[in-house]
Amino acid sequence: MKQRVITAVVLLAVLALVVWQINTPLLVAVLAFLSAVAANEIMKCAKVENTFIRVVGTAFACVFPFFSSEKALEPWVSSEIWSKVTDALPGIVYIIALVLVFLLAMLKGYAYTTFEDVSVSVFASALVPFGFSTIIRLRDMFQIEQFGIYLIFYGLICALATDTGAQLTGMAFGKHKMSPNISPKKTVEGAIGGLIVSLLLNGVAIILYNRFADFKMDEFAATVLLIACLPVSFMGMMGDLSASVLKRNFGVKDFGKIFPGHGGVMDRFDSSLFTLPITYAIAITVFLK
């Protein structure tokens, strides 16, 4: 417990620093680091023995967030200059190239590299970093920058509040197992409590946003976000369960040990990697019409 508390305090300090520098490349650098570590954790847990695939996959995951926005490197590099790099080729071209490189590596190292290794590595190297990169995309997608930054915290609240609320409610009132074969400690009562806590905290967050932001959130946006809070939070729980299934398939307790007492990057961000992309999808389909 002491180790968990110390790690949590350190993480909060790092989070405060990142929030303070949220409009600088420091945010992108932190997300690049998290993406690289998470990708490597998954490939390591899946026992991908091909060193070339693991190195290339980790490097790809690290670079991915820098291409998520033309404003990613401001104020160090202007958006006019960086956009020439990000727009040079469609993003799908890089994904296709990654898959082809992995398949060629499989052919060369066929004796110890399987198609499952390639599949896991593509998922770890491309889809996981995309989840982290949605933070940058949300930050930079609106003219009213404060709203984009708020949506980042919306996605994080849906994940963290649901997880914490479910744990506390489950400890107090949990009786009916939600998914005993995947995560024996999770209960139906805890899940309901987690959704309620997420809804309440997001309601408070909207009130605080309209109290302190320069540009207020209109009634339509507030209503959409409150209604969407429940399905987004529910998907956060599904992200947590999905990570539990992966760990069971891999035969490991935690994805990594980078956060003493808390596990790896994937152990801490499994729910957020579901809620943030869904928040990004809502932003594109509802608020950018």
Describe the structure.
The chain is an all-alpha fold. The chain is 73% helix and 3% strand. It contains 11 helices and 2 strands. It has a two-stranded antiparallel ribbon with strand order 1-2. Helix 7 runs antiparallel to helix 8. The longest helix has 32 residues, at 219-250.
In short:
With 289 residues, the chain is an all-alpha fold. It is built from eleven helices and two strands, in the order αααααααββαααα.
Name the descriptors.
single chain; two-stranded antiparallel sheet; globular; 289 residues; mainly alpha
Number of helices: 11
Q: pLDDT below 50 for ≥5 consecutive residues: which ranges?
A: none
In N-to-C order, the SSE pattern is HHHHHHHEEHHHH
What is the overall pLDDT average? Answer: 89
How would you characterize the largest beta sheet? 2 strands, antiparallel
* Strand residue content: under 5%
The termini sit apart by 48 Å
Number of extended strands: 2
Gross geometry: globular
State the oligomer: single chain
Largest beta sheet: strand ordering: 1-2
Radius of gyration (CA) equals 20 Å
Structural class from helices and strands? mainly alpha
